[in-house]
Amino acid sequence: MKITQVRARVFEWKGHTVAPTDHFCSNAMDELWDKGDSMGTFRFHGWTVVEIETDNGIVGIGNVALAPRIAKAIIDQYLAPLVIGQDPFDYEYLWQRMYRSTHAWGRKGIGMAAISGVDIAIWDIMGKAVNKPVFKLLGGRTKEKIPCYASKLYRTDLKSMQEEAQSYLDQGFKAMKMRFGYGPKDGPSGMRENLNSVAAVREVIGDDIDLMLECYMGWNLDYAKRMLPRLERFQPRWLEEPVIADDIDGYAALNQLTSIPISGGEHEFTSYGFRQLLEKRAVSVIQYDTNRVGGITAAHKINALAESFSVPVIPHAGQMHNYHLTMSTLASPMSEFFPVHDVEIGNELFYYLFEGDPEPINGFIDLDDNTPGLGLKLNEQYLNQFNIIE
Ligand SMILES: O=C(O)C(=O)C[C@@H](O)CO
Ligand SMILES: [Mg+2]
């Protein structure tokens, strides 16, 4: 079997969106005097869809969620010529070919995200070619079904957050993640706001539900050091990305500071990046996203690495490209799940683009043993609501 064509298309949402309100979610821009559209650091309303065709008619589908127009240009100009004419089963060779030939500029960030999209499509082809789901190619089913946590609870008024938390309980979720709205610039009153929001959610969910806390890199080390002891009484399952992704020593300091596990890795790349995080004991939970970290080929290696350090892997986002990895390793006890709703941040855009993602039932998702590949196809229903760049 040979790869004959690589097609990268950008899908930009032009349909209805919900605008985030002020203090919706702390983020890395909050430290600057002129934050500009700071929400833009994590809001993305476009996606790259990669379709790779083979000479026996199989089409594999991959995706990239970051900087879609740049990802498309990288795939078109650099990556497609490297994989066309090659056997998709040589996935490790093809990964190294893409990684090494773009190494000067591509090993982290959007270069690696573009490689991820191609790699995911290659794994989809392999699954379809042998008529097996991708998780069977990665080691098979290690759990009856995958527990997942509801991930939204952006900072709004506390009553709305409480109602939202209650809705996840009603749907049977046993874990959920909330976002902080305030950071260092907001002083003691912002600290109080942050603590009040956690108290409000805990009040509704009680002590028997796991609660994860997300900073999205919107704090700094000093602020996080002052917040962590104050948060201990809420017993969070983890505190996520308190500082910017490059401050690995900061993560390590915070991870040793209190009983609260520090999580990260959503903005880290390849097994080399994760080896650093693990060796420095910088994170207690690993959160790569397969569509950035280097695809399934890289994520599979990181799972093995994490297993040897006894650090759980709970990938960012969930969604099919991550679920197959979670299903096939004991290193991964759980998945994230973005509730389906109107387009707001962009995380939920995935469901407008693709169909086939499993719906959670009572806080669990399952994968079908008989659906070959990743099990995704383009969702025709919303195609006319996207500006599609060929
Ligand atoms: O789900 C996460 O971990 C994210 O970081 C999502 C992002 O949209 C910020 O909340
Ligand atoms: Mg996160």
From TrEMBL:
Gene3D superfamilies: Enolase-like C-terminal domain, Enolase-like, N-terminal domain
Domain Mandelate racemase/muconate lactonizing enzyme C-terminal as annotated: residue spans: 158-261
InterPro entries: Enolase-like_C_sf, Enolase-like_N, Enolase_C-like, L-lyxonate_dehydratase, L-Rhamnon_dehydrat, Mandelate_racemase_C, Mandelate_racemase_N_dom, RHMD-like
Keywords: Magnesium, Metal-binding
One GO MF term: L-rhamnonate dehydratase activity
Keyword Metal-binding annotated: yes
Top-rank taxon: Bacteria
Keyword match NAD: no
Cofactor(s) this protein requires: Mg(2+)
Gene Ontology terms: biological process: carbohydrate catabolic process
Top EC category: lyase
EC id: 4.2.1.90
Family matches, as Pfam families: MR_MLE_C (PF13378), MR_MLE_N (PF02746)
TM annotation in the entry: none
Family: Belongs to the mandelate racemase/muconate lactonizing enzyme family. RhamD subfamily.
Subunit structure: Homooctamer; tetramer of dimers.
Protein name: L-rhamnonate dehydratase
Organism of this sequence: Terasakiispira papahanaumokuakeensis
